Amino acid sequence: MDKSQIPFLSATDLAALIKTREVSPVEATEAYLERIPEIDGKLNSYITVTGERALTDARKAEQEIITGNYRGPMHGIPIAIKDQVNTKGILTTGGSAILKDFVPKEDATVVNKLNDAGAVLLGKLNMSEFAMGDAFEHPYGRPHNPWDLSRNPGTSSSGSGAATSAFLCATSLGEDTGGSIRGPASFCGLVGIRPSWGRVSRHGVLGASWSMDQVGPISRTVSDCAITLSAIAGHDPKDSQTWNVPVPDYLSTLNKGIEGLKIGVISERIEYEGVDPQVRELILKAISQLGELGAVISEVEIPLIAQSAAISTAVTYGDVSGVHREGIEERLHEYDYNIQLRLLTGAILPAQAHQKAVRLRHLLRQQILDSLEKVDILVMPTSSIPASPIPEKAGVDSKEAFLEMLGGRRSYTAPFNLASTPALSINCGFTVEGLPVGLQIAGKPFDESTVFQVAAAYEAATDWNTRRPPL
H-type helices in 89-146, by residue range? Predict the structure, then answer.
């Protein structure tokens, strides 16, 4: 096939062609390496492109496949990784100038797993500084949204969303503390899953909140997301928070359909006055589509869900200020101004406020788990708005802006990182301005299979994932 068309294949389709040797890993890698410099000047999605290494790994994968040593669906697939994840011998900045010279001596566990799966690393992806949300300054270039260059591609896995959406990698890794996989997936029209907390190792990942950080894939299709998660999931002795539970064959459940599956709709998060009317309309249409596919739709109530962003913020800011204690004391001026505000807020947060947030977290988690005893899946918007305009200045200049920071769209992703349950965002349509909207699908702990099952049924019944951004 025409090499220039290879990047527009799904990772799953590319894997099938690599397995049958109709496309070689070298051809695929070259296709992406040729496309990246053509497109990424508009997006700033990459911090580092590892072209020489990628071609070396692609040649190795090609020879292994020729000799019959095919490792599975990620073998020879060109991928990219958020620059929060340590890569041996490759610059890892965390999106910060503070780490502009940091070259790890060891790969993170997820990188080792991808290497074992035969994946080809194209490079490291741009992000908000230290994965702390809406940074204003980006020392490696401000990321832009492929659907509208004046818009935010989502935070903090900004580059993962932009690069995957723009066909600059076959699939990618992000990291989600309070929504940093699901937000970019929603804003960029992708499929991104935050796995159950403890499903994927965080060894070798620059942390923000030890009790909520979780690595996961951002991909163009549900099956791409499934094969990427399969490659990185599993118990790791180097991360005591990982669970020693089997990793299912996620691909095997994708075509089961959803006839009779019980789906709970969190209506208050749809009818809330802060939801963009176009988002509301598209979410309601998506839920109706799930009903037409045979799911049993009912409404559920989660009383604390409206406070989830404030709870998540109090926990996260307290955690992250502890992680960066020395930085606050010695190098605060080197951080982005917005990140300084977050660090200082966490540093002066009263202990009783942090403890109250921790207790409220447990109550909210129990409310979500109780609702999942009645239904198989929960659905609501991933974000109350489509991709927001890139801000023109740093800081918070009003009480309303501060309250938005504590609530707003963050109250849509926060419930499930607080509950430690899997949650996925899938594109469910576009606004009249051509901006993607994400439907969020959440499930029981360690039941990513059912989440994927619902997402795959919806994806098969629609054509949203076939559209390309107007680059």
Answer: 109-117
Phi, psi of 290 (to 5 degrees): -60, -40
- Round to whole Å and give the CA distance between 85 and 81: 7
Query: In whole angstroms, what is the distance from residue 124 CA to residue 101 CA?
Result: 14
| 158-to-169, 170, 176, 280 alpha-carbon distances in Å | 14, 16, 11, 24
Q: Find the catalytic residue in 24, 128, 156, 160.
A: 156
Check if 398 is active-site: no
Edge-to-edge strand list for the sheet holding 377-381: 46-49, 120-125, 78-82, 171-176, 214-219, 191-194, 423-430, 436-443, 377-381, 262-265, 296-299
Domains plus CATH for the chain?
3-253 (3.90.1300.10)
Reported confidence tier of residue 406, pLDDT bands at 50, 70, 90 = low
| Annotation marks residue 180 as catalytic | yes
Q: How confident is the model at residue 392 (pLDDT cuts 50, 70, 90)?
A: confident
Query: Token digits for 89?
Result: 């011998």
CA-based torsion, 383, 385, 390, 395: positive or negative: negative
Choose, from 180, 196, 371, 384, the residue flagged as catalytic: 180
Predicted structure pTM score? 0.97
Band (43; pLDDT cuts 50, 70, 90): very high
User: Does the active-site annotation cover 285?
Assistant: no
Q: Which two tokens stand for residue 374?
A: 């009645």
Decide: helix, strand or coil at residue 317.
helix
- Residue indicated by tokens 């004391």: 329
Query: 53-59 long-range contacts, Cβ below 8 Å, gap at least 24?
Result: 53/90, 53/121, 54/29, 54/78, 54/120, 54/121, 54/122, 54/123, 55/26, 55/29, 55/30, 57/25, 57/29, 57/120, 57/121, 58/24, 58/25, 58/26, 58/28, 58/29, 58/30, 58/120, 59/25, 59/26
DSSP helix, strand, coil percent of the chain (3-state; round to 5): 45, 15, 40
Confidence of residue 1 (pLDDT cuts 50, 70, 90): confident
User: Which entry of 10, 82, 196, 425 is annotated as an active-site residue?
Assistant: 82
